[in-house]
Design brief:
CATH class of the largest domain: Alpha Beta
Shape: globular
Structural class: alpha+beta
Strand order of the largest sheet: 8-4-3-9-19-18
InterPro entries: FAD/NAD-bd_sf, MnmG-rel, MnmG-rel_CS, MnmG_N, TrmFO
Strand content: 15-25%
Keywords: Cytoplasm, FAD, Flavoprotein, Methyltransferase, NAD, NADP, Transferase, tRNA processing
Number of strands: 19
Family: Belongs to the MnmG family. TrmFO subfamily.
Distance between the termini: 42 Å
Number of domains: 2
CATH superfamily of the largest domain: FAD/NAD(P)-binding domain
CATH topology of the largest domain: FAD/NAD(P)-binding domain
Largest sheet: 6 strands, mixed
Helix content: 25-40%
EC number: 2.1.1.74
GO molecular function: flavin adenine dinucleotide binding; tRNA (uracil(54)-C5)-methyltransferase activity, 5,10-methylenetetrahydrofolate-dependent
Bound molecules: flavin-adenine dinucleotide
Length: 468
């Protein structure tokens, strides 16, 4: 194990709390990362005992460097702290308002970073570890859990690098296809920023029983010159490398578009960009040389993903290259593409809205393994799972926050709003929020729309908290 503080683990019997009529059984959490740490804190704040099982430092991952709780494995940023104009900033606000440990320690160890919330990662993780270790209701055990318990009140928060043994146990319960080991994320576009004077709605060969199905895709046509320029830009773009320990061999089924382009200039035109079975609604007599298709990504219809466009291009390069696509010149991206080692469930089919595993409801999932992506999103799902598990331990039920809030929008997306067939991890973004009437759409309307979303979210989140 490389240098870094290691946990001091408490030993002995699990904490138990006396309640009228007996002893309250602890909630068990697997994984003391961003989500598990926040969940443990929330449960203890509710007066319920917790046992937190963490495999590090005994069992290592390729990305973690210490034995600390809540270690940030890559960047030291919690992204934008603007709670008026930014959905991540709004999520910060909700976590602070709910007394979140992760946000309070991030604030304590904040570094200068303009509008972003960057933290001193070591001091941050050490403080989280110290706070959890000092709490009399929390017991931390240095153990790898390799089987899924069939009873009790458990939270699985094992993250993108869930250990192989546990992943195998999860797959036994969920089925092999329901727990992915890698994400392959195609960029996602805010629907109201697509230029429909250029693009049109149509499924290939008009397939589908209903009109909605026959118009399920948005198509962006390219001339030969546009296609050639696009391929040149793809080949020249800056790419990110796989992290040490990630294996590129897993990606054969979903190659990055730039790798497809490297295999031959025509590969994409015979792959995801094939122009067959489509008629340009604006120019029916003109045959496109290539077509980029976008598919609906959420039930609200506010987000569309670019089909087959998973990529390892750097973010700046992606925006530049994808805006070359006719119809996407002014596109605003809810998230950009990526491919990473990432264990995550097909949550829309597997989790109920209390984050419980449908086939085995004594297990609640939290954090990145649920299909959210990023430190803040993962910690926020830990916060919710912790509060729900604590309510359950007390014989109560806690409903998720309304989906007009950042946390509510995220949990709604992963447990039902997202398309299950194409489910890939998601960051929080305004495309997940239910649209407001009487507010301008499109990129130009953002100045009015975003403050309206965040104000509504603050009001609704405060009411949700006050009702507990
Ligand atoms: C290489 C890499 C780079 C990343 N870069 C960024 C970034 O720059 N910015 C960003 O926002 N996000 C990044 N992420 C994602 C980020 O790591 C996650 O969003 C976040 O850590 C998820 O929190 P979590 O609690 O769900 O998982 P984690 O923080 O990973 O915590 C899970 C914990 O579970 C433990 N565990 C796993 N299996 C078991 C088991 N069987 N028994 C007991 N314990 C177990 C692990 O040791 C770990 O401590 C990156 C992820 C990876 C893999």
């Amino acid at each position: 194990m490389p240098s870094g503080a290691a946990l001091s683990f408490s030993k002995g019997q699990p904490a138990r709390t006396a309640i009228a009529g007996g002893v309250m059984q602890p909630v068990n959490i697997i994984g003391a990362g961003l989500a598990g740490s926040e969940a443990a804190w929330q449960i203890a704040r509710a007066g319920v005992p917790v046992v937190l099982h963490e495999m590090r430092p005994k069992v290592e991952t390729f990305a973690h460097k210490t034995g600390n709780c809540a270690e940030m494995v890559c960047s030291n940023s919690f992204r934008s702290d603007d709670d008026v104009m930014n959905a991540v900033g709004q999520l910060h606000w909700e976590m602070r308002t709910a007394g979140g440990l992760i946000m309070s320690m991030a604030d304590k160890h904040r570094l200068p970073a303009g509008g972003a919330l960057a933290v001193d990662r070591e001091a941050f993780a050490e403080s989280v570890t110290a706070a959890l270790t000092a709490d009399p209701l929390i017991e931390i055990r240095a153990t790898e859990i390799t089987e899924l318990p069939t009873d009790g009140n458990w939270i699985v928060a094992t993250g993108p690098l869930t250990s192989d043994n546990l992943a195998a146990a999860i797959r036994k319960v969920t089925g092999t296809d329901a727990l992915a080991f890698f994400d392959a994320i195609a960029p996602i576009v805010h629907a109201d920023t697509i230029n429909m004077d250029v693009a049109w709605e149509q499924s290939r060969y008009d397939k589908g029983e209903t009109e909605a199905e026959q118009r399920a895709y948005i198509n962006c046509p390219m001339t030969r010159d546009q296609y050639e320029a696009f391929i040149d830009a793809l080949l020249a773009a800056d790419k990110t490398e796989f992290h040490e320990g990630e294996t590129a061999g897993y990606f054969d089924g979903c190659l990055p578009i730039e790798v497809m382009a490297e295999r031959g200039r025509e590969t994409l035109r015979f792959g995801p960009m094939k122009p067959v079975g489509l008629t340009n609604a604006h120019k029916p007599d003109e045959k496109a040389y290539a077509v980029v298709q976008l598919r609906r990504d959420n039930a609200l219809g506010t987000l569309y993903n670019i089909v087959g466009f998973q990529t390892k291009m750097k973010y700046g390069a992606q925006t530049e290259v994808f805006r070359m696509i006719p119809g996407l010149e002014n596109a605003s991206f809810a998230r950009l593409g990526g491919i990473h080692r990432n264990s995550f469930l097909n949550s829309p089919t597997l989790l109920d809205d209390r984050m419980r595993l449908r086939p085995q409801p004594n297990l609640r999932f939290a954090g990145q393994v649920t299909g959210v992506e990023g430190y803040v999103e993962s910690a926020s799902m830990g916060l919710l799972a912790g509060r729900m598990a604590a309510a359950q331990a007390k014989g109560q039920d806690l409903a998720p926050p309304p989906f007009t809030t950042a946390m509510g929008a995220l949990i709604d997306h992963i447990t039902g709003g997202a398309e299950a067939k194409t489910f890939q991890p998601m960051n929080v973004n305004f495309g997940l929020f239910p649209p407001l009437e009487d507010v301008r759409s499109g990129r130009r309307g953002r100045k009015d729309r975003y403050p309206a979303y965040t104000q509504r979210a603050k009001d609704d989140f405060s009411s949700w908290l006050a009702a507990q």
